[in-house]
Amino acid sequence: MTKFLSLILFLLIFTKLPLYAGQNSWGIIEKCQKATQNLNYKGVYISQHGHELKSVEIIHMLHGSEEYTRINLLDGNADEVSSQGKNIMIYHRHDNDVVIQSGPSNKRDQQQLFPAIFPSDITEIKKYYLLSSGMSEKVAGRMTQRVNLIPKDNFRYTYNFWLDQETSLPLKMIISNLEKNVLEQSTFNKIQFNTVKNLDWFTPTSDKLRKNYIDENITKKINLNRFWKVQNIPPGFKEVNFMVSKMPGMNMVGNHAVYSDGLSYISLFIQPVRRGQKPKEGDLSFNATNVSARYHKGYQIMAVGSVPFKAVRSLIDSVEF
Q: Are 183 and 238 in the same domain?
C-alpha cells in the first residue's frame, strides 16, 4: 500500500496535468495579452513557416499610453514594419515602397504578429478553444510555462505557447493541425527586458532610402458599397476589416474582407475576371496557409488563411450576389 501511495504521489507531482480547467483560469491569457502591450523588450526570434526560416528582430516600448514597435526581417529583402499606436508603416526594400496604414483594424490585418498574438478581448477565444497546460521548460535561457489552446471544432488549428514565468510574455509559439503536424513556429533565441529607454531606435534603418509612399487609407475610400454577402461565416469568425481597391487596367474594383476568431484569420477576395483570363478554381496549400477558390458570375472568389481547408471552403461556398 505504501508503494502504491508513493506511486500516486509521484504521478501527481511529475506528470503533465492540465492546470487550467475553469473559467478563471483564462487569467493567464489575459496576463499574457497585457504583457505584450505593457512591457519594454528587445529580442530576436526565429520564425518558421513550413521549410522557410526567417530571423526577426523586434523592439517594443510602451511610451506614455501609446505602443511603439519595430519589426526588422534580418533575412531576404530585410523588410521592416513599424507601428505607432494604430498607425503602421511597412517598408519594402526590394521595390523601395512604403505602405502606410492607419485605423483601428489594421493590426488585425497584420494578424497580431508574434509575440503580440492575442487580441485585447479574448471572449470569443474562450468559446472556441479549450485551455490546458504542459511542462515548464527553458526558452532563450528563461523558464516558461507551456499553455495549449485546443480547438473545439475543425475550423481552426491548435496553438501552443511557452509563456515567460516572470513576465507572461510568449517566448515560443507552435501552430499545429488536427494531425498534430507542426505548421508554423516562432521562438526567441535572445530577449532582454527594460533595456529600451527612449525612442531613438524607432526611426527605420531604411528611412534614408528614396521611397515611394503608398497610402492604403486612400484606396479604402473607393466606393465601399457591396454587391455580395456571406450567408454562413465559419463559427466564431467575425469580419474585422473590409476594403476595396481599383483593379489595374480595369474600371472596376476588387473587394477584400478579413475574418477572425481572435487567433486565426481568413482573407476573402472577390475580384472581377478579365475577358480571356482563366479563373482559378479548387484548393491549394502553402505550408500552414490554405487557399480555396471558385468562379461565380464573372468574379473570382478566393479565401486564404492559416486555417483548415474546411474553413476556407465554407467561406467561399457561402458567398452570394
A: no
What CATH number is given to the structural domain containing 77? 2.50.20.10
Chain Cα centroid distance, residue 211: 27
Pairing of strands 212-215, 97-101: parallel
DSSP string over 61-115: EEETTEEEEEEEE-STT--EEEEETTEEEEEETTTTEEEEE-STTHHHHTT--TT
Tell me the per-residue pLDDT of 289-308, one tens digit each, with 9 for 90 and over: 899 999 999 999 999 999 99
- Name the residue among 171, 185, 194, 147 with its Cα closest to residue 27: 147
Q: How far is CA 284 from CA 52, 267, 292, 294, 303, in A?
A: 18, 15, 6, 12, 11
SS3 302: strand
CA distance 184 to 48: 6
Q: How many domains, in total, are found in the chain?
A: 2
Please report which confidence band the pLDDT of residue 200 belongs to, taking 50, 70 and 90 as the band edges.
confident
**Which domain-ending residue is among 213, 230, 263?**
213
pLDDT in tens, 108-122: 344 568 999 998 889
Domain of residue 288, CATH code: 3.30.200.100
The rounded distance, in Å, linking the Cα atoms of 94 and 115 is 26
| In a shared domain, residues 202 and 242 | no
**One domain for residues 135 and 227:** no
